[in-house]
Amino acid sequence: MLTTRIFRPTMNAGAVYARVLGSALPMQSIGGLEVMELSIEEDTKKQQDYSRPGGGTRAQVKRVSSVLLKATLQDLNPVNLARAVFGATAAVASAAVTDEAHVAYKGGLIALAHLNPSAVTLTIDSTPVDAEGNFEVRPEGIFVLDDAADISDGDDVLVSYTHGAYDLIQAITEAAPVLEMRYAGVNEAMQGANSMVDMFKVQLGATKGVGLINDDFAKLEIEGEVLSDPTKTGDGISRFFRVQMMTPA
């Protein structure tokens, strides 16, 4: 027997887990969220009543046209960022680079291929150039000083250095990701009652922006659509999402 409990105010907090649909990997937390919501859009077909003056609706049919997901992510970790920009992520191991070729200009940056260079050696015509009075080593590369004594505009230089491990995201190289997602909620207005929402097949859209400089914490705003999952079968079984809510005492 179904018992109706009318009193159920809701103010949720919670975590979201995700993985690529069909993956054998475990579902992993996507980190902090400011917003996570589902919205249902419907299409209404109306049949007008022409049997008498004044008209009106004789009959109507309502059908769900889409189930949309909207989320604001607080953690710009490599996986979240790669999914949001339709990209791929890879872990780059620490390594030594020998004789990376560049052209130097005074007051300009030599943009090295890797982040955070150290143990840097710069040579021109096989002659090492001292850093003092000529260049600065920065996380983004080598900055040649305006008054560099031993470097001239257009000099061909070779740079050898080491770099640490880092994550590399190549943007807009993959199709829109399709995820399986689980929301694990806590209703703070009901003494921490737990709930769970499973979204079986979510196709993400690309983020509308990636914050680089801002006076607030960076975030990723993403949208997607919950698609029908044909593997979910049976009478009364949803192909889109399901909700489990703890029964209050």
Describe this structure in words.
This protein is mostly beta strands and 249 residues long. Helices cover 3% and strands 51% of the residues. The protein contains one helix and 17 strands. The protein has one helix at residues 78-84, and strands at residues 12-20, 28-29, 33-48, 57-73, 88-92, 95-104, 109-110, 117-124, 127-128, 135-138, 141-144, 155-163, 166-170, 178-187, 193-204, 220-226, 241-245. Strands 1, 2, 3, 4, 14, 15, 16 and 17 form an eight-stranded antiparallel β-sheet that branches. Strands 6-12-8-9 form a four-stranded antiparallel β-sheet, with no helix packed on it. It has a three-stranded antiparallel β-sheet with strand order 7-11-10, with no helix packed on it. The radius of gyration is 28 Å and the shape is elongated. The model has no long low-confidence stretch (mean pLDDT 94).
